[in-house]
Amino acid sequence: MEYSAAFDADLAALEAAAIDLAERHEAGPVDATDRRDYVANIDHLVNTYPLSFETIRAHAEHIKRMYRNRTNENTVRKRIDTEHQAFVADVCDDYDPQF
Predict the structure, then answer these.
(1) How far is CA 45 from CA 13, 64, 76, in A?
(2) CA dist., res. 85 & res. 62, Å (int)
(3) For the residues 19-44, what does the mean pLDDT come to?
(4) Computed from CA positions of residues 35, 40, 43, 45, in that sequence, does the dihedral angle turn out positive or negative?
(5) Which tens digit of pLDDT belongs to each residue from 46-95?
(6) In terms of pLDDT, which residue wins out, 6 or 33?
(7) What is the torsional sign of CA 18, 24, 27, 31?
(8) Which band of pLDDT confidence, cut at 50, 70 and 90, is reported for residue 25?
(9) Given pLDDT bands bounded at 50, 70 and 90, which one contains residue 99?
(10) H/E element, 48
(11) What are phi and psi of 29, to 5 degrees?
(12) What is the largest CA-CA distance in the chain?
């Protein structure tokens, strides 16, 4: 797959939704709206880019786990950025990660 700024932004939106869902889990019960936003981001990526549901969901779940297991907010944000770049490098042939 070719890299595009649109894909990068869509993936960042999914990661933000995953973090938001993890935060909501910490605060209490998660409602259908919270889950719907997360699933909508996954659905958008699956229907827009040549990636499988499993690949995208696995990445989003990995980001959620990283965030849930955080010990320091700044450190986890840096780790998530590194994971973002590694994921894009794995799926985009022409992406040069900056880590």
Answers:
(1) 10, 17, 24
(2) 14
(3) 90
(4) negative
(5) 999 999 999 999 999 999 999 999 989 899 999 999 999 999 999 999 99
(6) 6
(7) negative
(8) confident
(9) low
(10) helix 32-48
(11) -60, 145
(12) 41
Q: How far from chain centre, in Å, is Cα 61?
A: 8
Contacts by 45-48 with C-beta closer than 8 Å and gap 24+?
45/10, 45/11, 45/14, 48/10
- How far CA 27 is from CA of 20, 22, 30, 31, in Å, comes to 11, 9, 9, 12
Q: How far apart are CA 40 and CA 35, in angstroms?
A: 8
Q: Looking at residue 50, what DSSP letter applies?
A: S
Q: Around 52, how many Cα atoms within 13 Å sit in the side-chain half-sphere? A: 3
Residues in the chain: 99
CB 41 within 8 A of CB 14: yes
pLDDT at 29: 85
Type of residue at 90: D
